Amino acid sequence: MGLLDTISGIEIAESHRPWPRVLVSGEGWQQAIDQLSAGRFALLGLWADPPTIHMGLFNGADGDAAIVSYACKSGKFPSVGAHHAPAIRLERAINDLFGLEALNATDTRPWLDLGFWNVRYPLGEKAAVRKQVPYKFLPAEGEGLHQIPVGPVHAGIIEPGHFRFSANGEYVVRLEQRLGWVHKGIESLMEGAPLEQAAKLAARTSGDSTVAYAFAFALAAEAAMQLKVPLRASYLRALMAELERLANHFGDIGAICNDASFSLMQAQCAILRERTLRAAEAGFGHRLMMDVIVPGGVSRDIAPRGLAEAAALVATVRSVFPKLVELYDNTASLQDRTVTTGIVKPELAMQFGAGGFVGRASGRAFDARRALAYAPYNELSFEVPVLDAGDVNARVWLRIREVEQSLLLIRQILAAMPSGDIRVPIAATRSCEGVAVTEAFRGDVLVWLKFDSKGQVARCHLRDASWFQWPLLEAAIEGNIVADFPLCNKSFNCSYSGHDL
Amino acid sequence: MRKSLFEGLIHGALTERPPALDEMALAELATKVERVARVKLGRSLSIRQVDAGSCNGCELEIHALNNAFYDLERFGLRFVASPRHADVLMVTGPVTRNMREALERTYGATPDPKWVVAVGSCAANGGIFAESYAVEGGVKDVIPVDLHIAGCPPSPTDLLKGLLALLEHLDR
């Protein structure tokens, strides 16, 4: 319990698993904030369960995680964001959804509430609708600066978001994001939902990471209910998670190159992506493998030919992918676009606790499969590639290295696939809480889950890796030219839906 | 690079035969598409995709239409960057309250004649998100819809069937 030694708690929540959750007073809350701002802990999440605010903490030094909870006094809590910037947007979202206010916050503008809802504070004490006021973008002052507003509807088949560029000629002086457009109210739909329905909602938080979300949701539910999942189910879950990672990495590598006008890579990578999705469909009956992972195990066993299809996919990728890597590496005009473009400084990646390729391409060696190892990854051998250049090129190379690791993992999983049951029945559940983190292709997904006395979901919080990556994109683009923004953006490939919830 | 391009010449194409037309889509379209428009546009349609609140699952499969296996452009269908260049709006997701105005303005910016294709279960009626305070409902609750393509998400083959039915109908 190294992490909690530095924080004075009042009492430990009894039914919270697997990490400890401790209720703190103002003093303990401040100690946690101090540890964050000193860089000793990383913020895993900040969410509300009125009247309580929960803060997820991770200590990289000993791989320890815990949750610190503060009971708001008349709807207010001391701001974390005022001392630790990564919490700012989370606090703004908490205020929009719950009406709980961060005291002395530096930024009190709304975040998810864009002024179109019929209700204010939909998850808290509901209030009259907020008056539409023009959103105040942060200023950028200087001679000859101009603004370029982009979105929410973008050119291309992508999700909606608004970007406000302040540019000096071609150079970006400041980028400010405004998100929340695809806010669907997932956390409110979770309240009172039966377990099965809640798992479906979790699986539709961000479609590209549906396996990772369903995985995290299932692990959190199983932790709360103290369920042990059959080994075969656990291996099938990892097989799906790695197939999902492969499919997305292929898509990303191709799309990044395409944004540098090198469409040959896009065409080749799209073929590999399609082959991966077809292997997924052959094995699990759904191209994105939606709703296969459920609390208690998996909803269906892999089809008889699924294992052979997965093995064939690995063989195909092994013969084709190295040639594409060589092509990427030897195309000077492509490298000219990606090398030294959109650099994320290692200090920032560390401060924001950035996960996924964004963090690992900037020296932060965090991968939930290793740092917060969950079954079956604790039994599998793999490397966590880390680079430190932090540019678009590093984020491409990181994906390339991760593709190689995923292939190794799939081979191990196929070779060791245990036989036996794939699901255990869910026993009646009563007032308990669970938390889990899984590694989606873009980074760590956190799910916190609380069951009420009837076994229904009382509260569920889903935190996408994008929360701590989006702000870094604002930093990465500074000083780059506007025309490189699509390239930088694609190299991050943050989720809009996963962030907006 | 020359090597890969050369390999492309000697290997057979990956592109697959088009799927059979979707009968249900044909029936839905039969009542809606006008003859005048058919004459004007022939068999070539420009599609603008709009995400009005989707989980991004549908976008992934729409993207897949461009890969070598489905090769959408061989049918005269292509994705364009602006609604001003589009004949078809392909809308995904439940329409969130936050996106309603943006969708209406995109529809307004698309020149006539135009068609709206609602893609996915959420676009039909809000799907799993229908009851939320943050969701308006399906696409038809905000703008007129000509064709629904069902699925969560619909596979590229399902998408192709629907779009080919639209083309076929224009052609008749």
3D structure, described in words:
The complex is a heterodimer of chains A (501) and B (172). Chain A is built from 17 helices and 16 strands. Chain A is of the alpha+beta class. In chain A, helix 6 runs antiparallel to helix 7. In chain A, 57% of the residues are buried. The mean pLDDT of chain A is 94. Chain B has 172 residues and is of the alpha/beta class. Chain B is built from seven helices and seven strands; from the N terminus they run H-H-H-E-H-E-E-E-H-E-H-E-E-H. Chain B has a five-stranded parallel beta sheet, sandwiched between helices. In chain B, helix 2 (23-30) packs across helix 7. The longest helix of chain B has 16 residues, at 156-171. The radius of gyration of chain B is 17 Å and the shape is globular. The termini of chain B are far apart. In chain B, 50% of the residues are buried. The mean pLDDT of chain B is 86. At the A-B interface, helix 4, helix 5, helix 8 and helix 9 of A face helix 1, strand 1, helix 4 and helix 5 of B.
Q: Shape of chain B, please?
A: globular
Radius of gyration of chain B: 17 Å
- N-to-C terminal Cα separation of chain B, in Å? 43 Å
Structural class of chain A: alpha+beta
| Helical/strand content category of chain B | alpha/beta
Summed over residues and divided by their number, the pLDDT of chain B gives a mean of 86
Number of helices of chain A: 17
Report strand % of chain A.
15-25%
Radius of gyration of chain A: 22 Å
Number of strands of chain B: 7
> Which sequence of strands runs across the widest sheet of chain A?
1-3-6-5-4
Shape of chain A: globular
